[in-house]
Design a protein that fits this description.
alpha/beta; 7-stranded parallel beta sheet
Length: 249
């Protein structure tokens, strides 16, 4: 992910194990692995969190640390962002997730530790907790439905933290199913040859004085199509079936 030191995710008084597990999954999506829990309501460890975390349990939940207070959880933190829709009466910078994480990437050089603080699901962070943060992060959402659950908030912040180091394509070619990989130039050439051969046998290129232009047009058509390997196989199968002659008894 980023060359900067990844931020610590601090969940203050989280109420449901499922939400802690979902937050762990959201963290690992963007390379965040250090979770700190402040006074989780149902204690710790929590089997519901493990079940919800799925593959993130081993890399995030198993390493999670529990603290009695937010001050304890922030003991080694230099810069902290409190995610909340409240606390605007406090004199602090207010960011969106995008502007906060753009700033944060420039503040984490060396051994400086960054924390992202999230409040309990029902009420969010209290003002005395927000006061410990360096800045406030508020997500610009639909004012008629501003509710975000804990994992969604973690996901948004994690995405904005890691976005500059994310793959340019949604699914890197090396991880795509083989059929979704773009066809090579040689594969497309062989497909064009196959169709030209079968169409020629079917006397498609007629009249003779226009045959060369028709072949050129068809060849150009194949080269323009953004075909995958699966697409190429389908087109090979189509022309084989269209020109198949059943055996005679």
């Amino acid at each position: 992910m980023s060359h900067s030191v990844p931020p610590v995710v601090i969940l203050v008084r989280p109420q449901m194990g499922e939400n802690i597990g979902a937050a762990a999954r959201a963290m690992l999506n963007f390379g965040l692995t250090e979770m700190r829990l402040v006074a989780p309501r149902d204690g710790w460890p929590n089997p519901r969190a493990v079940a919800m975390a799925s593959g993130a349990a081993g890399q995030v939940l198993d390493r999670a640390r529990v603290f009695a207070t937010l001050a304890d959880a922030m003991e080694d933190v230099h810069v902290a962002y409190a995610t909340t829709a409240r606390g605007r009466e406090l004199t602090k910078p207010v960011h969106t997730p995008a502007t906060a994480m753009a700033e944060a990437r420039g503040l984490t050089a060396g051994d400086r530790r960054l924390a992202l603080i999230f409040g309990p699901e029902r009420a969010g962070l209290e003002n005395d907790e927000i006061a410990r943060a360096s800045a406030i992060v508020t997500v610009p959402v639909n004012p008629e439905f501003p509710s975000l659950n804990l994992a969604q908030a973690v996901l948004l912040m994690g995405y904005e933290w890691g976005r500059e180091a994310l793959p340019a394509q949604p699914a890197p070619a090396g991880r795509r199913p083989p059929g979704e990989v773009p066809a090579t130039r040689l594969e497309i050439e062989r497909l064009a040859d196959h169709w030209e051969e079968r169409l020629n046998a079917a006397r498609f290129f007629f009249p003779p004085d226009k045959a060369a232009t028709m072949r050129l047009t068809l060849r150009n058509l194949w080269s323009r199509l953004p075909l995958t390997r699966a697409d190429v196989q389908i087109f090979h199968g189509m022309i084989r079936q269209l020109t198949w002659t059943p055996p005679r008894d």
